[in-house]
Specification:
The protein has 22 helices and 13 strands. The chain has 432 residues and is an alpha+beta fold. The chain has four domains: 2-182, 2-Layer Sandwich (Beta Polymerase, domain 2); 190-265, Hydrophobic Seed Protein (Orthogonal Bundle); 269-380, cca-adding enzyme, domain 2 (Orthogonal Bundle); 387-431, no CATH class. α9 (198-210) packs parallel to α11 (236-248). It binds adenosine-5'-triphosphate.
């Protein structure tokens, strides 16, 4: 990290630009926590500064012109030295997307921490204007905006502590250090949650994950905003982003408990999961029955109502399919408990995704051994015959092939067939 910051400092100095590390990286390092991403803000043109960094470090630069920000993703030499850089071919992409790029969401950074990829987000010191409740702000002037003015648009005092990269000095203009020491989340002004209700989710996420409390005035402002239904005015996409961030946190259960206490879960039609469900998911994910890219989705399944998935969160078509499948399966879950025949278990579980299987294994511990058997044994059973053999038997090519091969597989799963010869005999008997 230090090596990278030194290089960034040299670039800033050479170009006469004031650059600061801001937000989570400073907050977390002062708390002695491992941080996952770096946000840099510059007094001047952040996008241009991004290009300068890319010249030095290589990697992929994404520019979000609407918000005058850029993200540089590059590959590090080794994961133990998170910011030892290696130079890769520079590449620039431009994005006009609004929602996700406005306040850079570190969805990627936690996943990246496991790989050698790192992202630095670069923003220009700016002023923002909120046009309506729960609407994204309009980015106003960037030119000539000072650090102090930029900090005033931020969410909480603990997120306004910055590191002057060149001077290697902490700058704390809005008393963030004091709140960090007192473990308090404090908004910068009374209209903060009205301007941007996503800050309610952020406040509870930080409180849960850092073990902090909302300072009394901030707490009553948040409760008031919730009571007025402001979170429901956010777009389903923005709510989803916040929920995903929460479910990706290690302390997700604690955060959800706070959301429950504040009445957020009820308003969104979500439920508080039993503590043992998430513990069981944690355990099963560690077993990595089948590694999943969307582990957060397994936790999401634990907070939604299958019958009526929240209308306040946007779901993809595929996600809705999974939810619907689980809803249907809920009714046959007791029969799955009693089913003994491997082929029947296979038929019930084979079209489910990793996330669904992990969820069932966690929510219904009695079924865990059956699911493990399915994954470790039944799913690995392969036939010795194929479509070629069916063709040789004179069977006309078509959807029938799949059906016939499935019937052979079921027989094999139930231990009726041992060899290729037996499989061929079986199919002949089936068709002829
Ligand atoms: P973490 O990485 O743990 O989520 P973070 O504070 O770095 O924490 P980011 O979402 O990366 O979170 O935001 C970076 C900084 O941008 C924040 O520290 C904060 O100063 C500012 N910020 C982010 N979202 C908002 C918001 N909705 N309103 C005001 N400022 C925000």
């Amino acid at each position: 990290m230090e090596e990278t910051l030194d290089k960034i400092a040299a670039i800033a100095k050479k170009n006469n630009i004031k650059a600061y590390v801001v937000g989570g990286a400073v907050r977390d390092s002062l708390l002695g926590r491992k941080d996952f991403g770096v946000d840099i803000t510059v007094e001047g043109d952040g996008m241009a500064f991004g290009k300068m960094l890319q010249k030095e470090f290589g990697g992929l630069l994404c520019q979000h012109s609407k918000f005058k920000t850029a993200s540089l993703t590059f590959t590090t030499l080794c994961s133990s030295k998170p910011f030892a850089l290696c130079h890769s071919e520079p590449f620039i992409c431009h994005s006009e997307r609004s929602e996700e790029s406005q306040h850079t969401i570190h969805d990627k950074s936690r996943e990246e921490s496991l790989s050698n990829k790192k992202t630095i987000d670069i923003a220009s010191c700016r002023k923002e204007k909120y046009l309506g409740i729960a609407e994204l702000p309009e980015v106003g002037i960037c030119h000539g905006v000072s650090l102090q003015e930029d900090l005033k648009r931020r969410d909480f005092t603990i997120n306004t502590i910055v590191l002057d990269i060149e001077a290697k000095k902490i700058i704390d203009l809005l008393d963030g250090r004091k709140d960090l020491d007192s473990k308090l989340i404090r908004v910068l002004h009374p209209k903060s949650f009205v301007d941007d209700p996503t800050r309610i989710f952020r406040a509870l996420r930080f409180a849960g994950k850092l073990g902090f409390e909302l300072e009394p005035v901030t707490k009553s402002l948040a409760l008031d905003a919730i009571k007025k239904g402001l979170i429901k005015k956010l777009s389903p996409k923005r709510i989803r982003d916040q929920i995903v961030l929460i479910l990706k946190e290690y302390e997700r259960q604690k955060i959800l408990e706070l959301m429950h206490q504040f009445g957020v879960l009820t308003q969104l039609g979500l439920k508080l999961p039993e503590d043992k469900l998430f513990k069981s998911i944690d355990k099963n994910l560690k077993l990595a029955i089948r590694p999943s890219d969307h582990q957060w989705f397994v936790y999401l399944l634990g907070i939604i109502n299958f019958e009526n998935p929240s209308e306040f969160i946007v779901f993809t078509r595929l996600e809705l399919q999974k939810i619907e499948r689980l809803h249907k399966l809920e009714t046959s879950i007791t029969s799955l408990e009693t089913i003994k025949k491997p082929s029947e278990v296979y038929k019930l579980l084979n079209n489910l995704s990793n996330e669904e299987l992990l969820f069932i294994a966690s929510a219904y511990p009695k079924l865990k051994s059956k699911i493990l058997k399915f994954l470790k044994v039944y799913q690995k059973v392969k036939l010795n015959i194929s479509g070629k053999d069916l063709k040789q038997l004179g069977i006309k090519k078509g959807p029938l092939y799949k059906e016939l091969l499935s019937v052979v597989l079921y027989a094999k799963l139930d231990g009726k067939l041992q060899s290729r010869k037996e499989e061929l005999e079986f199919i002949k008997k089936e068709v002829l």
